[in-house]
Amino acid sequence: xxxxxxxxxxxxxxxGIIFAIxxxxxxxxxxxKYSKVISANGYTGKDAVLKMLNENGINDVSVMRIDGELTxxxxxxxxxxxxxNNVYSSSTIAALGVAAHECGxxxxxSRGYAPAKLRSVVVTVSNISSTILWPIVFLGLFLGFAxxxxxxxxxxxxxxxxxxLSFLFSxxxxxxxxxxxxxxxxxxxxxxxVDNTEVIGARxxxxxxxxxxxxxxxxSLLNLLRFLLVFLRRND
Length: 236
Prior knowledge:
This protein is mainly α. It has helices at residues 4-8, 14-34, 45-55, 85-88, 93-111, 114-143, 150-190, 198-234; strands at 62-66, 73-75, 80-84.
C-alpha cells in the first residue's frame, strides 16, 4: 500500500510545529523589545566581541559585518565572527547579547570545547547523508512506493537515517548553544560591557533564542518517530 500511514501520522508533528512557531515569535518579540534599549556603557556589538576576544587571549579570530537580520554566526574553519548590520554597529541590549553569544562560540573553539567539536563532525555527516538520501525520501513519499517493495524499504530506511541524524545534531546542538549563551552572559558582566540590570535583557534574548533550538530538536524527533512508526507497523 501507499505511505498512507506516514501522511496520517502527520498529526504527530502538530505539537512540534506549534511550538516552533511560538518559539520563533518569542525570539522576534524579545529581540524587538531589547533592540530599543540602548546600553549605558556604549559598546557596539563589534566592540563587545573584540573586547571579549582580547580579554580571553584570542588573537586569531576576526570580526566582520554581514547582511541580513539575525544572520550572526561564528565559523570555526575561517575563525570569523560574522555580525549582521543591526548587531555589528548597534549598542542595544539585544545586539550585545547576540554578539556575545557568537563570541561565546569562538571561546568554545579556542578552549577545545568537546561538544562543539562533536557537533562539527555530526553536521558534516548529516549534511552528506541528507544530500544523498533526501531525494530518495522525497521521491518515495511523492510517488508512494509500496513499503514492502525494495524501493519502499530504501525510502523508509533513508528517512530513518536522515531524521535520526537530524535529531542527533539537534540533541548535540542544544547544550553547545546553551553553553555559548552562558559564556556570553558571564563575559558581558565580567568585562563590564553591560551592568547588572541590562544583563537581564540580554539573558532574555538568549533564552528566547534557545527555545528555537529546542523546537528544532522536537520537530526532528517527531519526524523520526513518524518513520519509525511506519517501520514498526510494516514489521508487525
